[in-house]
Specification:
The chain contains five helices and seven strands, in the order βααββββββααα. By secondary structure, the chain is α+β, with helices and mostly antiparallel strands. It has a single domain, classed as Photosynthetic Reaction Center, Chain H, domain 2. Strands 1, 2, 3, 4, 5, 6 and 7 form a seven-stranded mixed sheet that branches. The two termini are about 25 Å apart.
Length: about 270
């Protein structure tokens, strides 16, 4: 399981622990000797503390190491972390934890092998190992650390898309009879017989010329309408979707557990969020 620095796992970890910062707590032995300070904390994917990254300084040995959380006791009131049995030999045997060090399974096993009791036999398999195999290193001391979990419900809102309808756009052809009025011109022949202005005048026989077969031709025209059809763009239809935003309110009853503390005798009990 990969490990994460505390601030990478929870950027608001100070608020989570009531404003306290676990970093920079001093590290002391059970006898009260200061041997270093906490530089950072490593947690697993579930947020369980697994290691303290400690700047250690014991006699002439000085390095940054990983210290399994099960070996530590955090005293919030004194702003100290206590560790029992940390020897110079163990410090020298631990790998240096540099900024670019990758705390993978094999790296952790090197750390565990230094602190693991010689009488304890653990068969290490990087594919199947879990922290429950080393409760001495990762389990909290039940006498010094007891956990009582208070649960609270909260509403979780999710959204999913539901098809509410469908619009189909198509075309069909409609027909209608249209009447069109076209003005046309037609020519016709009008023959008028009128009295000549020289009516009654005697014509000189010598000037009289009778001709047979004389013809006058006049061409007659009329307009004939030519009706045809043409197509043109009458209208454009654009189809698109728009998204409207709305707020839907949900209401339900949630439950929360609160702590009840009953004391017997003259006890000094401090209730502090960390």
């Amino acid at each position: 399981m990969p490990l994460h620095k505390l601030e990478h796992f929870d950027q608001n970890y100070r608020e989570t622990f009531g404003g306290d910062d676990l970093k920079a707590l001093d590290l002391y032995t059970g006898g009260g000797d200061r041997v270093g300070s906490v530089a950072d904390v490593l947690v697993d994917d579930d947020g369980h503390f697994r290691y303290l990254i400690v700047d250690i300084s014991l006699d002439l040995a000085s390095k940054k190491i990983l210290l399994p959380i099960g070996l530590c006791q955090i005293n919030d009131a004194e702003r100290r972390v206590y560790v029992d049995g940390l020897s110079r030999q163990q410090i020298e045997s631990l790998p240096d934890h540099t900024e670019d060090a990758i705390a993978n399974n094999d790296y952790e096993e090197k750390v565990r092998s230094v602190f693991r009791s010689p009488t304890k036999s653990v068969t290490y398999d990087r594919n199947t190992y879990n922290y429950q195999q080393d409760p001495d290193l990762y389990g909290l001391n039940e006498q010094s650390h007891q956990t009582f979990k208070l649960y609270e419900e909260r509403l979780i809102a999710n959204k999913y898309r539901v098809k509410t309808g469908e619009v189909t756009i198509g075309k069909h052809i409609e027909t209608e009879n249209v009447r069109l009025t076209v003005p046309v011109e037609k020519e016709r022949i009008l023959i008028e017989r009128v009295t000549p202005t020289e009516a009654g005048n005697v014509v000189n026989p010598n000037e009289l010329k009778f001709q047979e077969g004389e013809v006058a031709r006049i061409e007659v025209y009329e307009e004939t309408p030519e009706i045809r059809k043409e197509a043109f763009v009458r209208e454009e239809v654009r189809v698109k979707k728009v998204v409207e935003h709305d707020i839907v309110e949900a209401q339900d009853t949630i439950r929360r557990e609160e702590l009840d503390v009953d004391t017997a005798g003259n006890l000094n009990v401090q209730d502090k969020a960390i």
